[in-house]
Design goal:
globular, 2 strands, two-stranded antiparallel ribbon, 90 residues, alpha+beta
Length: 90
């Protein structure tokens, strides 16, 4: 299974959102859920949950763990198709 999380924000608040995320301690080079332990998952969650944004998680299953780039491409493809077809229209 491959999970992809994304945040969709109004461009007017993007700088504020980025600033909030930069304050979250990182376990690696990037703020990445996969690289974080349970404590960091809680910190990330506390930072992202109250943001005035849409949270999107897309799942690809089954996914070959030996080919994560292919799984990511499939998830993005499905995500973009759903977005442009109006599935997520509010």
């Amino acid at each position: 299974m491959y999970l992809l999380g994304a945040v969709i924000a109004d461009p007017a608040i993007c700088d504020e959102v980025r600033a909030q995320l930069r304050r979250v301690p990182r376990t690696g080079q990037k703020l990445h859920w996969r690289d974080a332990d349970e404590q960091h998952h809680r910190l990330i969650h506390r930072a992202v949950a109250p943001m005035p944004v849409q949270h999107v998680v897309v799942v690809a299953s089954p996914a070959d763990p030996r080919r994560p780039e292919r799984a990511r491409a499939n998830v993005w493809s499905g995500c973009c198709t759903s977005w442009t077809s109006g599935v997520w229209a509010s």
